[in-house]
Specification:
Elements: H1 10-15, H2 33-39, H3 41-53, H4 63-73, H5 79-104, H6 111-126, H7 135-144, H8 147-157
Helix pairs in contact: 2-3, 3-5, 3-6, 5-6
């Protein structure tokens, strides 16, 4: 829905005639989809932290840049690309979830709690993936605490690393 501009962000709701505050609940600037996910300081910091965890050492870009990068660079079935896509999806999901919980439930989490939620989601998803054995994947698995994937395969199937 985000890629197609279909999320009911405040700027869209106002354009439909709804009377409401324009402010982003995460930072108080005017809310739009591009602002909420990539210009908002709160979500940029979240995305920066997730990028560090997935070993993508770069600063988060603007929405258009991130979308083009994802379409160009995150293609394919490699472990790193799947992890990058999952990181992007988790950040988008958690930002939208946080926005809604602040608007509708008056529940605020800090960035660390949300990042930990993203990491937990990523860990649960990676548990079911087949991770090819190579040094880069090994380092990522060490960083994320996924070593048990390699050990399980080693002892279950007797296949050396």
């Amino acid at each position: 829905m985000l890629c197609h501009g279909r999320l009911p962000t405040k700027d869209r709701l106002i354009s439909w005639g709804m009377d409401m505050d324009k402010g982003c609940v995460l930072c108080d600037k005017e809310e739009s989809a591009s602002h909420l996910f990539f210009y908002c300081g709160f979500s940029r910091e979240m995305w920066r932290k997730i990028l560090l965890h997935i070993k993508d050492h770069r600063a988060p870009g603007k929405w258009e840049e991130e979308l083009q990068l994802a379409l160009r660079r995150y293609k394919g079935k490699s472990f790193q690309n799947k992890l990058r896509r999952l990181g992007l999806y988790c950040v988008i999901y958690e930002v939208w979830r946080e926005r809604n919980s602040r608007i509708f439930g008056n529940i605020n989490r800090d960035i660390e709690q949300i990042v930990n939620s993203c990491i937990c989601t990523i860990r649960h998803r990676v548990c079911i993936w087949k991770v090819p054995r190579n040094k880069l994947n090994w380092n990522i698995c060490v960083e994320w605490g996924f070593l048990w994937i390699f050990w399980y395969r080693l002892f279950s199937f007797g296949v050396p690393l």
